[in-house]
């Protein structure tokens, strides 16, 4: 059975995007960028909601060809393109870059994917992750907390029907006061 992880940058007050989908507060240090790149490199399958897919696919497929691209950006772009991905959307019509589109019930498909053999899965996108969270499908939460209060926007966590007990498995501090906390779901 595959493990499903949900990890994102978030503000200290719990948002993954500020009002207006502003992400300007979450620019990573080189060390944090490398951590995210290594995470992508180790992911067996990434699950994307439409909105985050559109943001990622508008930049990373050609980021390594941009003037001034750093070696880290080149590596991340290659890893991102090579990583198998599933986009959950009824509005998106086409996908590319080692990606398939799924238009049915997300929770049913994520449950099926978890039961398969293969590497770990990462889920990305607030709406998609919220559905998996409410269904009790997430095995790990990776919170990369930036020392900023944004006052609103898109929350990392959604309302859940029952408590979800967690075990802390890692903490790490990155430059700029950014703190990683990783938790596994207690089953």
From TrEMBL:
InterPro entries cross-referenced by the UniProt entry: DHFR-like_dom_sf, RibDG_C, Riboflavin_Biosynth_HTPR
SUPFAM superfamilies: Dihydrofolate reductase-like
Membrane-spanning residues: none
Name of the protein in question: Deaminase
Pfam family of the protein (one): RibD_C
Positions of the Bacterial bifunctional deaminase-reductase C-terminal domain: 4-180
């Amino acid at each position: 059975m595959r493990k499903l992880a949900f990890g994102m940058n978030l503000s200290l007050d719990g948002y993954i995007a500020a009002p207006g989908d502003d992400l300007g507060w979450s620019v990573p240090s080189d060390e944090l960028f490398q951590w995210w790149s290594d995470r992508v490199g180790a992911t067996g399958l990434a699950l994307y909601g439409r909105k985050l897919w559109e943001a990622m696919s508008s930049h990373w497929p050609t980021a390594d060809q941009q003037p001034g691209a750093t070696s880290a950006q080149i590596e991340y772009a290659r890893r991102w393109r090579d990583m198998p991905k599933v986009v959950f959307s009824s509005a998106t019509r086409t996908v590319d870059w080692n990606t398939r589109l799924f238009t049915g019930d997300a929770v049913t498909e994520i449950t099926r994917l978890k039961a398969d053999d293969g590497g770990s899965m990462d889920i990305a996108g607030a709406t998609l992750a919220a559905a998996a969270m409410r269904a009790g499908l997430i095995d790990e939460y990776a919170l990369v907390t930036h020392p900023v209060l944004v006052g609103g926007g898109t929350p990392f966590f959604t309302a859940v029907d029952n408590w979800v007990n967690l075990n802390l498995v890692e903490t790490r501090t990155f430059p700029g006061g950014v703190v990683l906390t990783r938790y596994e779901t207690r089953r």
